[in-house]
Amino acid sequence: MSYFKTWWKKNWAGYLFLTPWILGIIAFTAIPMGASLYLSFTKYDMFTSPEWIGFDNYSAMFLDQKWQSSVVVTLKYVLIGVPLQLAFALAVAILLNQGIRGLKFYRAIYYVPSLFGGSVAIAILWRQIFGGDGLVNKFLNELGIDGKNWISTPDTALYTLIVLMIWQFGSSMIIFLAGLKQVPTELYESSTIDGAGPLRQFFSITFPLITPVVFFNLVMGIIGAFQAFTPAYIVSGGTGGPLNSTLFYTLYLYQKGFTHFQMGFASALAWFLLICIALVTALVFLSSKKWVYYQE
After folding, report:
1. Is residue 227, in this structure, part of any structural domain at all?
2. Taking the CB of the first residue and of the last residue of the chain, which one, N or C, has fewer CB atoms within 10 A?
3. Which residues are CB-contacts of 288 (< 8 A; sequence separation ≥ 6)?
4. How large is the greatest C-alpha to C-alpha distance in the chain, in angstroms?
């Protein structure tokens, strides 16, 4: 008891300031998560009382062909979009790290798209750019090439959203640029004397020393890609595009919960997504032991 009193005297002020955050976590995170976990085992339409059905929502989910399509679309988006976005962000960061004039200006300009990453306005703009009468087709027409409605074509609809994802590379670029600034310049000077070229320097010096930054951007990119919703919803009009080509997992979850009012099924979808993100993140953390190098 005396230990608790001593501990409380030393820490009461800190916990007093933390009280709003703790109450917010309990009220807006812990309680809703607990409620959604319970609802995932029920049949609930928001108008009647929940009816306990056990694991029926989860078993029905795996047999749902539309759910299977959403999983495939989301995996394509993650597996293609995240690596390309990181590669593009790293390439731009390396260019900006060469000591060019106006670095602050270019850094700000490239970062701007990331500020509007999840905005409705950008998604609407993207729909106009890749539409049948959009900017892309007008440019192609000038070259004598007949364009098409890139958003309404199943083979290209998803890739327009991947391009949008890559275009929003600014936040990753800023983090890469910060990591590049920490690489000792004497390593490049020594390797140059030994005859190493830019490519050899990148793979032997630059990349190994910034792997912690690559790891951070990779984890954040994967989590963000799995949770992507606004681009697919706005560009496809909430339908998931032609032949479900842009039916992201989160969009299908939204349809089940707020269009079909199958809130119990939607809760099961949400918890399955949470588990998948946690497992993928854990795998990335485990793999990092083999390719992430921390300077001592």
Report:
1. yes
2. C
3. 215
4. 84
**281 φ, ψ (degrees, to nearest 5):** -60, -40
CATH of the domain at 267: 1.10.3720.10
Give SS3 for 43: strand
Domain boundaries, position 168: 65-291
- Global pTM reads 0.89
Q: Is residue 138 in a domain?
A: yes
Looking at the 3D structure of the chain, how many domains does it have? 1
